[in-house]
Please model this.
Amino acid sequence: SQTIHQWPATLVQPVGSPLSLECTVEGTSNPNLYWYRQAAGRGLQLLFYSVGIGQISSEVPQNLSASRPQDRQFILSSKKLLLSDSGFYLCAWRGVGELFFGEGSRLTVL
Amino acid sequence: QKEVEQDPGPLSVPEGAIVSLNCTYSNSAFQYFMWYRQYSRKGPELLMYTYSSGNKEDGRFTAQVDKSSKYISLFIRDSQPSDSATYLCAMRTSGSRLTFGEGTQLTVNP
Model:
């Protein structure tokens, strides 16, 4: 069966520091992968999606970037975090049916 | 105007009550309709998936789609405290990415 792993689960970072969130999917090959952000009390905002290695589409211009160095690995990064980057970040893959999400990474920027 | 509107709640009901969660949408091209359940500090999990109009039942859960009214519902019978979560509706056309509602927070009181 397919599983999706996301880490770290929680992190607190100072403004201006870098960020790296990782996501891996097991049990499938060449999945479509997604990064979403969920602000408190708000819906899901699609940040990036990828249909294959090295292929990244950005939905919203922002302080973040994404990379897909391997087939089942998706990374969300920032060189310098802003306060507004705080939120709950979710990685997802597109399976038969619909999107399946990881457990999320809660980022607090202070 | 948002493509998908969902009453944010919060909704609080006693154990055993029938719960009705609803979303309206404006894009008549939407064909695939989903409900996700999200427990606090966790990623959303796919709960129900329906195509086009009609009802789909799974245990205590019933998903209903009325395309003529652009309205979808999720009914929970005999609600349990373990049903306490945020419920997100989501929908898409045949070739598009998912559009999410902002979620309804539900609390079932013992």
In short: Chain B touches chain A at residues 8, 32, 34, 36, 41-46, 49, 88, 90, 97-98, 100-103 (CB under 8 Å). Residues 16 and 78 of chain B are 4 Å apart (CA to CA). Chain B has a mean pLDDT of 94. DSSP finds no helices and eleven strands in chain B.
